[in-house]
Amino acid sequence: MKAGTYHFHCTDGEHAVLDREGRYLRARNDLQAEAARAARAIMDRVAGRLDWSAWIVDVHDAEGRRALTLDFEAAAVAQQAA
């Protein structure tokens, strides 16, 4: 897919952290790595340990179409492997 702006919203179904500005990516291949970074940023900002098992990063393109969903646990694994 072409370059564009993507929004990396994070939620557990009850709480949400919305990405209103979005991030410009040169290639869709970068979505998973950027979603993992978004999840890690949320986990790093929250004091204490929460149960992240219900949290996901829900990625949408500029038109609002879902491009990727990544759960926080997979994001943590991906981030550690990087």
Automatic annotation (TrEMBL):
Pfam families: DUF6894. InterPro entries: DUF6894 (IPR054189). Residues 6-72 form the DUF6894 domain. This is DUF6894 domain-containing protein. It comes from Methylobacterium oryzihabitans.
